[in-house]
Amino acid sequence: MSLFLVVFLLAVGWVLVVSARALLIGRRSGRGPVVTWQLFQIIGSVAAVGSGTGIAVAGGWVALLIAVAVGVLLMTPSVVAATSETGSAD
User: Fold this and answer.
1) Block means of pLDDT (10 residues each) for the chain, length 90 residues?
2) For the purposes of burial, counting CB atoms within 10 Å of the CB of 67, is it exposed (0-12), middle (13-18) or buried (19 or more)?
3) Using an 8 Å Cβ cutoff, are 57 and 48 in contact?
């Protein structure tokens, strides 16, 4: 079980790194996995905030704010234009 978890988390990390690199070079393919990850982060953050135990609540709020900010920024018109074929060639 531990080996599976390690391999799975390494694979998730690899997907996020590849997605971030795709976003940096202007590819649309990076947006989907990053938005999906942010949704998972929001779910985890809400659970942490709801736990009501000290530092978990503070960390949950910070993670929630970051996840929402990244999700919103990924959907701004300038990012969508930069990562789509119809965007400018700058």
Assistant:
1) 96 96 91 95 93 87 95 92 66
2) buried
3) yes
